[in-house]
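Title: Request for sanity check on peptidylprolyl isomerase prediction

Description:
We are preparing a figure and want to confirm that the structure record we downloaded matches what your pipeline produces today. Could someone re-run it with the sequence below and paste the raw structure tokens into this thread? We only need the token string, no images.
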Amino acid sequence: MAEKKPVQQILIIVSILAFVGSTGLMAAGLFRNSGNNSPQSTNETPADAATQNLLVAEEGFQKVLEREPDNLFALQNLVSARIELGKVKEAIPPLEKLVELEPENQEALQILAAAHIQTGNPNEAIPYIEKLVALNPENAQLKDQLTQVKQQIEAGTQEDKAKD
């Protein structure tokens, strides 16, 4: 186990350097292309370029996770890229893996709960909000959020019964 830690640290450092390097190359490419302002040079808007960069990053982090499924850095950044791309539903599996690896990561718990609510699955959000309440028993906002989600579920259940 002691031998594994230095190897993991080296892999994390290499991953970070690879990410920073690739981001730097993309940024350099953007600056190089920004000098070419003629309409014939490109039809791509800055939003298109940003989206393309996010898609490239998403693919890169997926490749890292194929080799290292427990890589926290890649998981966090894959989630970030997918959410920025509007792929909230696709962000849920890596978020769940992140919470599995770091069960007290409050930011991941909060984002996962919000993702489930946003994708129309508030029932799935309940355990994560309950975990947040357990980690922060003095936080009234979290307790209120849990109550609101439960009420929303109950209201939806009652509407379904009324339709039947």
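Thanks, this matches our download. Residues 104-164 form one domain.
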